[in-house]
Amino acid sequence: LLQRNLQDKIPPPFAIGITALLFGLSHYPYTAFMLVTMVIGAVWGWLYYRSRSLIFVTFAHWLLGLVALG
Question: N or C: more exposed end of the chain, with fewer CB within 10 A?
């Protein structure tokens, strides 16, 4: 939702980068995990930008969580 609102004000690549950074920071204090989730957040941001649907991003997040915890 933040990305969509930012995209109305700034170019999409910057909106994706900002939201990916915030997504990575939300996994503080695990530095390596923060970096990985920032990259994954950028991929999911791009996926959202291309599809305009949270369904794919939500499913990808759920699936990755399932694999990571499985």
Answer: C
